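Weekly structure sync, notes
Attendees: PL (lead), two postdocs, one rotation student
Agenda item 3: pending single-chain targets
PL asked that the sequence for the first pending target be pasted directly into the notes so everyone works from the same version. It is reproduced below exactly as submitted, 226 residues in total.
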Amino acid sequence: MTARPGVELARRPLHFFLLVDCSGSMASAGKMTALNTAVREVLPHLAETAQSNPHAEITVRSIGFATGARWHIESPTHPDDVVWQDLQPGGYTDLGAAIDLLATVLTVPPMDERALPPAVVLVSDGMPTDDFDDALHRLAALPWGARAVRMAVAIGQDASYDTLTRFIGDSELEPVTASNPEQLVMALRWATVHVARAASSVAPSGPPPAQIATAWPEGSEEATIW
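Predicted structure, written out during the meeting:
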């Protein structure tokens, strides 16, 4: 189908950021392998969200954090063009460093004044080992940081649910959890589509699937592998 004249020009930038925990604990029980696979499976769904929204031009960037933080995908890239290189686990869980690195690009410039609120998904299996709270306050002090739509995915029962809840910063939203690779794909897909749609003022996706909607229930050990 041929796009209508002017549709592309009307689109506003929507920057999607994926913050990925690469700490040493992600090496256990295949969590890092499962996460790399889940990202590859989720990217086409993000591309579909981008294609179906005539108002937003979605691009992807990613930060990996362990001992310190680094750009994994530094240049804004259309979801269809992302070639996901496997992240490798090892080190601490410096979430504060990841948030500070994210904050460096949430100013004008490099942000476009016309941009939609940034969409950010955090995926982690542990507790921060650096100054997470101060970094979060610095992020919230930025106009674009305050406007960002944030969601978090908890991997395994050892994830710091309270930390992820504070990262989201919305009393009506909770982290989604995953106890195995299949749930991780569902959780990451829901979180990704949710923030992209919410940031672009399109009705967000409905509630997450029941099996990944809430924190860990009592007596669930037999049903989990992480």
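Discussion points:
- Residues 31-52 form the longest helix (22 residues).
- The longest strand covers residues 56-66.
Action: rotation student to compare against the earlier draft before next sync.
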